[in-house]
Amino acid sequence: MPGRASSTGPRHLTHIHDLSVEDMVHLLDSAERYVAAAAGKPALDVAHDKILSTTFFEPSTRTRLSFEAAMARLGGRTISASEPGALSVSKGETLSDTIRMVSSYSDVIVLRHSWEGSARLAARLSRVPVINAGDGAGQHPTQTLVDLYTIRRNLGRIEGNRVAIVGDLKYGRTVHSLADALARFHSEIVLVAPESLQLPADTRSRLEAAGGKISTANALEEVIGDVDVLYMTRIQKERFADLEEYRKVKGTYALDAATLSRAKKSTIVLHPLPRVDEVATDVDSMPQAKYFEQAAAGVPVRMAVLGWCLGIDPKEAGR
Ligand code: NCD
Fold first, then answer.
1. Is 272 in the pocket of ligand 1 (CB under 6 A)?
2. Rounded to an integer, what distance in angstroms lies between the CA atom of residue 138 and that of residue 134?
């Protein structure tokens, strides 16, 4: 069974590849069922006996709060552990100890950590499901489900769209898991990045092997007139060993209302947020801007993910 270390073990979500295309579609369908309950009507108590632990070793606003809101909307409770300072002591030991302990206190763990591969390590140590909320420059699978959900709601389907992914394709974990998923939906992906921040070659080969149609572009202007989805991302300043390198690429791509007016009316603009300077605020009021809707989708989508990990039937969502 995808996402399980063994046929009887906990159902983890550490990498988007833990999910088959059918699993992803199932989770998006479940999220649709949870839309009303995500707003509190009906109030559910399907997780009344469950505890979620959120263990965040890197900053988070949307991911953490939407997971906590999702658990509350399912009727469950959340406990939290966040000690970014502890990382400087000993990353490996800190993480292992935390996971061993927390897995005996809760029924599901959401982990964010600066270490690539941290969620997989945690899954090996944990007796309960581990959900990766971002592992360094690795993966962010629940953000991908949020992205796919927003694409499907606005464009009616995921397959066959032309998606430009713009910005930091080297370090952006949302990019890595989204591109992995889109390739399996046979989407056309245009990678728009400065040379130094292009998608790693091995990731690109993996996408092509999975059925993705991949091309590259240097400038936003080259693609803006002919895309269905414009997925903007922040340059991941915290991943640069040399800040001089960051300064060289900072501000490379900036979408403003004037540039977006050259896109099709049906193009949607997504961004996992937070934004720095890559999407100007004058875009916010344009009909193509869907990034706040995307952030809001975090609650029903994460209700579906928590339900999937905890074995809750989405039919209990009241719809
Ligand atoms: C992203 C992340 O943490 O990877 N944020 C999020 O979870 N929505 C994107 C980012 O930090 O740039």
1. yes
2. 7
